[in-house]
Amino acid sequence: MAAALKPTGRIAFQGEPGAYSHQACHEARPDLEALPCRTFEDVIEAVRKGEADLAMLPVENSTYGRVADIHHLLPESGLHIINEAFVRVHINLLAVKGTRLDEVKSAMSHTVLLGQCRGFLQQHGLHRIVGADTAGSAKIVAEKGDKATAALASELAGEIYGLDCLARHIEDKQDNTTRFLVMARQPDLTRRAEKMMTTFVFRVRNIPAALYKAMGGFATNGVNMTKLESYMVEGNFTATQFYADIEGHPDDANVKLALDELAYFTSHLEILGVYPADPLREQV
Fold first, then answer.
1. I want to staple 266 with a disulfide (CB 3.0 to 4.6 A). Which of 80, 137, 192, 202 is the partner?
2. Residues 186, 3: contact at Cβ < 8 Å?
3. How many of the other CB atoms lie within 10 Å of CB of 115?
4. Is the Cβ–Cβ distance between 54 and 186 less than 8 Å?
5. 8 A C-beta contact, residue 277 and residue 195
6. Which residues are known catalytic residues?
């Protein structure tokens, strides 16, 4: 069924136009039209139904860690990771056109962004207003037209909603970065790059030291594991699934040996994607 779907030239993301996920689409796939969706589930469904060719999903942030619930959605999505994208989260103070900085009394944004600009907000005595999301806050500020309320969002949001950028890059940590995964209906295992990444999920068998033994194959075969996270399955304390990223391709001899050894100690193993490493990975 998936093979019969016609290309749409669209990439789906969660949020309002101007969200940081929209920025990720703009930077990683400028050739595609960005399709806003209400939830992560809607993003996945848009690709599954053929309303979009690709999905742009955030998985982790360098300041706040992994994105809630995303690890639960990836294995059940039926989609495959074909690329990763690292996007710098630059926060800007956006206001109605013609507004001066000294006229602004409040700043609206998602609670996470408000927490990332404490220094600037305190310095200028700005009251914090929690909004549903970043681009949505910019949209509200534009619609209300009140000079006393500004938004914390991307410069792209300012362009979309016709707001002036009163202050650029006001985040407390200048290296704040979000990692996104680009997902498609079909996997692409044919590509080769200087550094390849493989992402998979697994559950260990119920035997003593199963995780320790499962991980041993990566050490003995010289495979670098860059991420290993655990999370409960369906709220069950006794059922734990692990999410992992490794450097290399499943066809590499050492990776194949490591995965074969892992499979021996697991009750479930599923590869979610094989893709080139983003060049920005080394800079984060």
1. 202
2. yes
3. 14
4. no
5. yes
6. 178, 180
